[in-house]
Amino acid sequence: MERFSLTDYIKKIPKAELHLHIEGTFEPELMFKIADRNKIKLNYNSVDDLKAAYNFNNLQEFLDIYYTGAQVLISEEDFYDLTWAYFLKAKEDNIIHTEIMFDPQTHTHRGIPFETVIEGISKAQKDAETELGISSKLIMSFLRHLDQKSAFEIYDYFVHHKDKIHAVGLDSSEVGNPPSLFTDVFKKAKNDGLKITAHAGEEGPPEYVWEALDILTVHRIDHGNRSLEDNNLIKRIAEQQIALTVCPLSNVKLKVVDDLKKHPLKKMLEYGIKATVNSDDPAYFGGYLNDNFIQTAEAINLTKDDVLKLVRNSFEASFVSDERRAEMMNKLSDFSI
Ligand code: HPA
Ligand code: ZN
Q1: Ligand 1 proximal residues by C-beta, below 6 Å
Q2: Among 160, 189, 210, 266, which residue has the fewest nearby CB atoms (within 10 Å)?
Q3: Could you give the C-alpha distances from 186 to 119, 164, 317, 325, in angstroms and in order?
């Protein structure tokens, strides 16, 4: 009998990704190509030079490079190419559904029309659905280093693109920018029927996770690692089955955890938390979704049942219709024995 390989199992099992910034999938090779096309000179001489800069001591050091990279995106074609390149990677990883975050303010603040961004991304989403069989939803993320007024300005675009935007999120520099600063804009989004998610407890304290839950009334928490410092919070998240979209390789690169071997993912599962595995900004953090699963499984001894649970969690926590969820769950039948 052939020996069971967890790596093969991970590669083959159909997966969903729930925490992915499209600007964070910008591979250096594509960045140079698009910069050339737009006659923009990058501050780096080569792909290797650029990659060598991808060493971060914290979230802010990463964000500074990530926002700089995004500046070469100008035309609808650029946003299409960026998104399509991610979908091709997703296909290789057997992702069947993905929920993509984009940061409109990163682009509108440098004069790129909102329409250019959203049209490019959503055309790639349509093509991925028909050509690759990958379904997707778009999450419009507000930058928390900017104020709520700016978030409302971006939110106004939603009205013209209701068919393309499914949820709102909150990202960027966490410490000093708690969820409560964005209470009104999230309230409006919820009233308008949008799903809600927020980065919390990545670098910020457990109080920020409480705020995301109690004040923003989120459906999911992005990251949420620091929830584990508060037993009442663990209880709350587990009881209400609020999903955490955990990103192991991101956590190591941004020094949220010291070492993948010390990653709390297994502990989260033991606490009954609905944890999921995701890649966050794979072009910057050294791996797409399968790499996140494979490296983490090896580092903390995940079992086949852990992997299956994590995949199931992501299907349960996704913002799809009940019909699509059932269809996705059905695809797991061969992987459940
Ligand atoms: N945290 C906060 N903001 C971000 C991240 C992240 O991990 N990735 C892209 N924007
Ligand atoms: Zn993120």
Answers
A1: 21, 24, 59, 171-172, 199, 202, 250, 280-281
A2: 160
A3: 24, 18, 19, 26
